[in-house]
Design goal:
Largest sheet: 2 strands, antiparallel
Radius of gyration: 23 Å
Number of helices: 9
Strand order of the largest sheet: 1-2
Number of domains: 2
Distance between the termini: 59 Å
Helix content: over 70%
Length: 204
């Protein structure tokens, strides 16, 4: 979601830090201010118009936390001039910025933020409405997908889940989760069928 959107903010920092004495672990207040200004400009010009951000209800006042967190993590790891590789933010620096976003708005393995869970449930609802041909199919699909989401939350690191390049191991784990949820759903339906049969027999 945030891939390279901070390039502008960091480019501004590098541009205006020329002649400054900022170094790893000790950025000047001016450099921190320049980064934060660029970071919030990215929000105003790009992220505030992004549908995903709108759906999560991320306001500018909330996004300040990501900017402050990014400054803290980047300052402790880089001198300003070392962050940009060519014309883009380095992959490692981008991961630090992404981590700040995940920590503030998505959560971590086994502990997703309530707002992110709400968004996931909303997307499940929208998807099942599109795919299901009946209320029964919709109920089955929702149960299956909610099972998968719960297991994914417990078993996946957020950085792996949000990565645009999913590893073979992650694909296999996702496949296993889907198969387990299908098996659980089938077992649940079989048990429910037995219960209904016994109830019907008892009522005769």
């Amino acid at each position: 979601m945030l891939k390279n959107v901070f390039t502008f903010a960091i480019s501004m920092l590098v541009l205006f830090s020329c002649g400054q004495k900022s170094e790893k672990g000790a950025w000047s207040e001016k450099d921190k201010g320049d980064f934060k200004k660029g970071c919030l400009q990215v929000y105003d010009e790009k992220l505030s118009k992004d549908e995903g951000f709108k759906a999560m209800g991320i306001a500018k006042d909330d996004f300040v936390k990501v900017c402050d967190c990014s400054i803290q993590k980047l300052e402790s790891t880089y001198a300003p001039a070392d962050i940009i590789k060519g014309e883009k933010i380095s992959d490692d620096a981008q991961k630090l910025v992404d981590k700040c976003f995940y920590e503030n708005f998505i959560g971590e393995k086994g502990a997703w933020k309530p707002k992110f869970k709400e968004l996931m449930n909303k997307q499940i609802e929208e998807l099942t409405v599109k795919k299901a041909h009946s209320e029964e199919e919709k109920a089955v699909l929702q149960t299956l997908m909610q099972c998968m989401v719960e297991k994914i939350e417990k078993e996946f690191e957020i950085t792996d889940l949000m990565s645009q390049t999913v590893s073979n191991a992650s694909n296999e784990k996702m496949k296993s989760i889907a198969e387990n949820c299908v098996a659980e759903l089938q077992l649940g339906m079989e048990i429910l069928g037995v219960v209904f049969e016994q109830a019907a027999a008892g009522g005769q």
